[in-house]
Amino acid sequence: MSTNVLDDAPLTGFHKRLAVYSAGGPFLDGYVLSIIGVAMTQITPQLRLSASWEGLIGASALIGIFLGAFVGGYLTDKFGRQLLYTIDLVAIIVCSVAQFWADDVWLLFLMRLLIGMAVGADYPIATSLLAEFAPRRYRGPLLGGLVVMWFLGAAVAYVVGEVLLHNGSEDAWRWMLASAALPATIIVLLRLGTPESPRWLVSKGRLEEAQAVLHKVYGPDARLSDLPREEQENTDLRKVMRSGYGGRLLFISAFWTCSIVPLFAVYAFGPRILGALNLEGGLANIGAAAITVLFLVGCVAGMLAINRLGRRALIIHSFAWAGLALLALGVFPDAPVAVIMTLFAAYAVLIGGTQILQWVYPNELFPTEIRGSAVGVASSLSRIGAAVGTYLVPVALTGWGIGGTMLAAAGITLFGAAISVLWAPETRGLALHEAAMIQSKGTKAATVHTGP
Fold it and tell me: Would 197 disulfide with which of 132, 213, 374, 436, CB 3.0-4.6 Å?
C-alpha cells in the first residue's frame, strides 16, 4: 500500500473544520428543498397554483441544481476549489432574501431556480476540496457526514417552517423561504481563509503554492515529493470518459438518481403524502419532521458502517431493504397509522447508506483533474430524474392515488439495488489516487463489477 502525506495524515482539527465548513452547502440544500414543502400549504392558495405549477415550484430548485452542478463542476476544475467556495453561498443569500417579495409565480420560480444553481455548484466544489484533503481512513465517514448535514438541514427546515406557520401571519411562507439567508451568511463567514487543494495546484503546475499549502496544513516537514503522482494525463472530461471512466459515470448517475427521486418527492411534498396516508393537518407536518430525523439517523448509521461493511455491501443492502419498505406502503396504503409510520420510518433509516455514498463514490472514482466535473455531471444527470419525479408527485397522487405513487417509488429504489449488484465497486482502504485509477496490470484500483 502506497503512502503519502495527504492520504495517510492523522485526523486533525483542520480536517474537522474543513468537514464542517464543507457541510454548509448540503445543510442549505436540505433546508431550501424541504422548507418549500411546508411553505406550499400557504403558497398554493395565495398564488392560486394549479397542480402543474405546484409541481414546478417544488421542482424548481432541483432544475437549478442540474444546471449549477454541471457548471460548478467545470469551473472548480478550471479555476480551483477555493475561489468558488464562498461565491456560490453569497448567491443563495441574495436570492433567499429576494423570495420574500415574490408576488408572482414566475418570480418565485426564478429565485428558486437560481438558489438551486448555487446549491448545485457547491456540490463539486466543497466535496472535491474535502475529498482531496481527507485521509483515506476517514474519507468515507467525512464525505458521508456531508449527507448527514443535508438531513439535518431538512429537519431544521421542518421545525422552522412549523413554528412560523403556526405563530406567524398569512405571509409566514415568505419568512420561511427568506430564512435560508441566515445559515448561509454564517457559513460564508466560516469558510473565509480555507486553503486551496494542493492536489489541484500540482495538477495545474502551481508547485510553489502547493508547497505553501502543505507547510500551512501539515507542517514544515511536508514536501511535494510526499504527494501521490496521479497517472491520468487527460484533463478533458470527454477524453477521459473514452479512456474508461464512462462506465463509472453511468453507474454513479444511475444509482444517485434511484436514491434521490423518491426521497426528494417525500421532502417536497411530505405533508401532502402523509396526508394522503391518513395523517391530517399538523400531524402530517410533525410526521414529516419525524421522518426527517430518521433519515438523519439512517445516514449516521451508514456513515459509521461504511468502513466496516465496505461501499459495495452498504449500497446493495440499503437499496434492497428500503425498496421493500416502500413496496409495503404501496401494497397497503390503507394500513393503520402506526403501520404507515413504521414503514416510512424503516425506509428513512434503511436508505441512509445510499445517501452517504452519493458523495463518497463520485469523489473516489475520478482523478483530480476531472473530479469536480465528474461530480457535477453525475449530480446534474441525477437531478433530471429527481426534478421530473418531484414535478409529477401532485399529478401521480391525483391520478394513481397514494398506493400507485408508493409502488412507483419502490420500483425506482429496487432498480437501484439491481444496478448496484451489477456495477457497484469497492474502494474501501484505497488511497484517493488508487481508487481513481482504471484497473490495469500491476495496479491496485477500484474494480467496477460487471456481474453479480
Answer: 132
